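Exercise 7b. Backbone tokens:
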């Protein structure tokens, strides 16, 4: 995907960034993108949503906002849709929607390297940990068990290796006494709701540029990647 020709910033910067969002669950992050798009705070157009679950509340959120939805359910009539079939349908949908950016927001299927490498736009994923720490599932529980003092969320480029692509941005908080996995999840989700639109704004404005190598545009005035928000409450 990241070859010499990839440039995420639209030629005409007055045009909104075309985004497709992949979801599996509640879609609270999708809702934040819808709200910031509708308020005019974020120069994006969500051109489509793909869900791999028929019961995802994210579908309702998208439909309420008149955003086209493709439901590619991983189970229909008790039969499991294999990842290859899912990816074939998703590719057709992406080709029709022509996004500038694909956002995985709570999307819970592991995608193949073929799909990732041939996607029509760069793909980013929201992950609930301070990567490279705590890749994979149950991050909040594992953070508590390990007695960590800090936790947070990351947005990274999607590559064939799970949760291992370049980290673009992170938001961090302090783990407080008597914290539980549930309380951490709630607090981290609040961070996610700030980090995702902030990151997409940086991309849409061309401040973060995904080309053959990821870079910040203003090398002298911005820190090196990942850009980090520290929210201490
Ligand atoms: C988020 O907490 C994200 O970190 C995780 O899945 C959750 C999705 O939440 N991967 P939502 O569907 O956006 O509400």
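Sequence design result:
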């Amino acid at each position: 995907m990241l070859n010499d020709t990839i440039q995420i910033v639209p030629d005409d910067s007055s045009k909104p960034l075309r985004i497709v969002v992949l979801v599996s669950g509640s879609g609270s992050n999708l809702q934040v993108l819808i709200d910031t798009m509708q308020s005019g705070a974020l120069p994006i157009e969500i051109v489509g949503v793909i869900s791999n679950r028929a019961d995802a509340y994210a579908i309702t959120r998208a439909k309420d906002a008149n955003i086209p939805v493709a439901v590619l359910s991983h189970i229909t009539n008790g039969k499991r849709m294999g990842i290859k079939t899912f990816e074939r349908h998703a590719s057709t949908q992406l080709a029709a929607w022509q996004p500038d950016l694909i956002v995985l927001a709570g999307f819970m299927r592991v995608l193949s390297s073929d799909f990732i490498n041939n996607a029509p736009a760069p793909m980013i994923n929201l992950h609930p940990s301070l990567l490279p720490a705590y890749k994979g599932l149950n991050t909040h529980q594992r953070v508590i068990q390990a007695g960590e003092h800090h936790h947070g969320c990351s947005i990274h480029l999607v590559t064939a290796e799970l949760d291992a692509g370049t980290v673009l941005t992170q938001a961090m908080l302090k783990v407080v006494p008597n914290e539980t996995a549930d309380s951490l999840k709630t607090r981290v989700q609040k961070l996610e709701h700030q980090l995702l639109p902030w990151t997409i704004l940086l991309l849409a404005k061309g401040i973060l540029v995904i080309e053959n190598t990821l870079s910040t545009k203003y090398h002298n005035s911005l820190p090196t990647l990942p850009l980090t928000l520290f929210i201490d409450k």
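Instructor comment: Helices lie at 28-39, 57-64, 83-97, 113-117, 139-145, 181-204. The longest strand covers residues 44-51.
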